[in-house]
Design brief:
The chain has about 140 residues and is of the alpha+beta class. The protein has a single domain (about 5-135), classed as 2,3-Dihydroxybiphenyl 1,2-Dioxygenase, domain 1 (Roll). Helix content is about 20%, strand content about 35%. The protein has helices spanning about 15-25, 65-70, 85-95; strands spanning about 5-10, 30, 35, 40-45, 50-60, 75-85, 110, 115-120, 130-135. Strands 1, 2, 3, 4, 5, 6, 7, 8 and 9 form a nine-stranded mixed sheet that branches. Strand 4 (about 40-45) and strand 5 form a beta hairpin. It starts with a strand and ends in a 5-residue tail after the last strand. The model has no long low-confidence stretch (mean pLDDT about 95).
Length: about 140
């Protein structure tokens, strides 16, 4: 059901420092920051040959990343995102198997403009999982 690893998201307490670290120290291609108000985050995607890293920084007072950084002041891995062909079929299969989808189960539009859902970390070995529906390759 799941496809390739789309990205690993890392919550960071200092976005500028993290960008410089990936760009200048590691020599990675770093894309410009983009605000995602519906998710309460500013994201920066770092392109790697086989996947992406997503830096997450709080946007606004109600950002879920702010709470994560309070518990993890140095930052850390926030979630892993896997691609799926059909997010509604994936949701239905997972919930039938007992997995909990966060929110009301309705996909939201993610940073790539595609539908996304998040799965409860307690159901996946302590790891928050994001599913992203990606267009079929032509």
């Amino acid at each position: 059901m799941i496809g390739r690893l789309n990205h690993i998201a890392i919550a960071v307490p200092d976005l500028d420092r993290a960008i410089a670290q990936y760009r200048d120290t590691l020599g990675a291609k770093v894309n410009p920051p983009q605000d995602e108000p519906d998710h309460g985050v500013t994201v920066v995607f770092i392109d790697l040959p086989n996947t992406k890293i997503e830096l997450l920084y709080p946007l606004g007072d109600n950002s879920p990343i702010a709470g994560f950084l309070e518990r993890n002041p140095a930052g850390g891995i926030h979630h892993m995102c896997y691609e799926v062909d059909d997010i509604l079929a994936a949701r239905d299969r997972l919930t039938a198997a007992g997995a909990r989808v966060l929110g009301d189960g309705t996909p939201k539009t993610g940073a790539h403009g595609n539908p996304v859902l998040f799965l409860h970390p307690k159901d996946f070995n302590g790891c928050l999982i994001e599913l992203e529906q990606v267009p079929a390759a032509s």
